[in-house]
Amino acid sequence: MADPSLEVKVEHLQDTVDQLSAKVDSYHISLVNIVDKKKKKKDDEGDENEERGNWGSKLDFLLSCLGYAVGLGNVWRFPILAYENGGGAFFIPYTIMLLLVGIPIFFLELALGQFSSSGPATCWRFAPLFSGIGVGMVIVSALVCIYYNMIIAWSLYYLFASFTSELPWAECRAPWATQFCLDYVKLMPRLNCTDDYGWSGDVDGACYNTSVVPKVIKAIWNETLAKSNDIERVLPTREYLRREVLGIDQDDNDPGLGNLGPIHWQLVLCLLLGWVFVCLTLCKGVKSSGKVVYVTATFPFLVLIILLVRGVLLEGYYTGIEFYITPHLEVLKSAKVWKEAANQIFFSLSASWGGLIALSSYNKFHNDIFRDALVVSFGNCLTSVFAGFVIFSYLGFLANELGADVSTVAGSGGTTLAFVVYPFAVTKMPVSTLWAILFFVMLVTLGVDSQFVLVETVTTSFLDIFPKTRKFKGFVVMCFCAAFFVLGLTLTTDGGLDMLDLMDTYAGGWNVLIIAICECIAIGWVYGARRFLRDIETMIGSKVCGCLPWVAFKYIWAACWCFVTPVVIVFVLIFSWIDYQRVDRLPQWADALGWLMTLSVIVAIFVVAIVKFCMAPGDSFGEKWRVVTSPTSDWGPALPKHRTLVTQYVPNFIVDPKNDSLPANAYQIEGGQTNLAYQFNGKPDDVIGKYTYENPPETSTFEPVIMATKM
């Protein structure tokens, strides 16, 4: 008979064991949860794509895109373009072109880069025939970044020159001022010239001191007559830019492309400083540049707000702003206005230069690219409009100071506005040094943000083509920056301004429009808009911007990519050809050099297409065409866990094309996932083990079948 006390002890011991077991299970579950949470946190914070790297945060990418899109053109080109094309009425075609051209191309490129995790040189694996588009993008970015950094160098020169008690361009000074400088030439009646000063009042509208040889102009008695005889008072800031900064000597027949002249060491140092800053920022990849843009991308907005507050306190500001926003609706009948609006939208967003693809290629796979496209596109355009209010408040003030019309002091925009008109306006203000420093720091930050992405586009493409060099990225960036610096030395000569204008006219003009058309054809018609929209939905899900249904937008994108956007771009391209005007001051042979830059991009697109077609396997034209217009085995997301999502709507999609342990034509299939296998001679057992063959032996008869293989 069993001892009752022993049974009680056994039961008690069993209860204790059960309790301990429950506690162990509880601790195990808690430990698993902690590990899972830490793993999830690590996945959220760390690199999703360890081989290529990702942005440190979503804000890094957003600010980088915004800094790339919002550049110098927003400040010095858009305001003048608006007043020349109807003032406030220009906002109507500008907004329409944003919706029809700007956002569709912008969104297309961001989505393409994020889905493929590839830069502009390698993201065309969905249709190898179009690989030349990426080559063209890299050429454009390389050409533009060479001269773009020269503008940054000018801004640095002016910034350093501003750290004085009195701005050096505030008044005409020897040795850089000529006899036409504003302070040297007075406005007075003709009788005063002769009676009060004893000068000679010529029929050309000017008064001369004839007591010296050669005679010197001292005053203008009729501005209209004098201007018709090429006699005009010149702002000291214009003399300072041309003769002191750029070293252009007007008495030496204005050196140009045919006579570059010597290199100016001050500009060389500023150019070198610009390239060193770009190199140091990019040498660690997007991790380092993503942090720098927190300052460089936000500072311009702060300065614009400060400048506007100061501008509206100046006398005459309202005249300038009224001149800017007064609508002239009759201009909407002109095709030229719509062409200019489309051009400005297209180039202000930096679409089809490859930079957007390069930036988004470092995104995590499920980033809401739709939201980012809208934020950056509208943010860029609103910045342009806002900058117009800032600029024209100062133009109104300057017109009031000079007693001239706003259109007279506005000039033609561009470098004239940034380095002539505004610097002269601040000389008429109290504490002019402060306002000059703020303005030129803003120009530097606007420039370097765009420059970061231009160089990143080139280096990313190189690293994608030669992935083994990724561990030497810092060295690669340094080599490219050094090469671009050397190529930019011609821009530091007397003829550097003409070289810059030549590159600005031809490097990123019509060729970029042709790239955009090719993009629309490749995605909309060859790869298929429906397939691409499904790819996007795989990344962002059924809800965009947090709450909006994706289905409400995707057919709009399809219509734009397939029809609306390419048609509008063709219209802009044709009208640009009709309205083409060469740069008059450049020699005729310079046009050939400019067209060489333009055609190098177009030739790259077609030459690469021909090479891809000729090298494609197949005996007939149709077989080769199918190969070069169909996705390759490695097209798609970089990581297998994301590629498995594509198999839900592309059953024959290869999950892991980069498994180095397999034969070159074999691909491992993850557990339970569907992939393409070939049924050799009608025998599924011929599929070797857990692998499937992309291409069966030539001696076998085969047909594709859908198979699910368990690991």
TrEMBL record:
Organism: Littorina saxatilis
Membrane spanning residue stretches: 61-79, 91-112, 133-160, 263-283, 292-313, 341-362, 374-397, 434-455, 475-492, 512-533, 554-578, 593-615
The protein's name: Transporter
InterPro entries, per the entry: Na/ntran_symport, SNS_sf
Molecular-function annotations in GO: glycine:sodium symporter activity; metal ion binding
Cell compartments where the protein resides: Membrane
Its membrane topology: Multi-pass membrane protein
Pfam (any one): SNF
Binding site for Na(+): G67, A69, V70, N74, S348, N380, L446, D449, S450
Disulfide bonds: C172-C181
SUPFAM superfamilies found in the cross-reference section: SNF-like
Taxonomic lineage: Eukaryota, Metazoa, Spiralia, Lophotrochozoa, Mollusca
A cellular component annotation (GO) from this entry: plasma membrane
Keyword Transport attached: yes
Protein origin, superkingdom: Eukaryota
Keywords of the record: Disulfide bond, Membrane, Metal-binding, Sodium, Transmembrane, Transmembrane helix, Transport
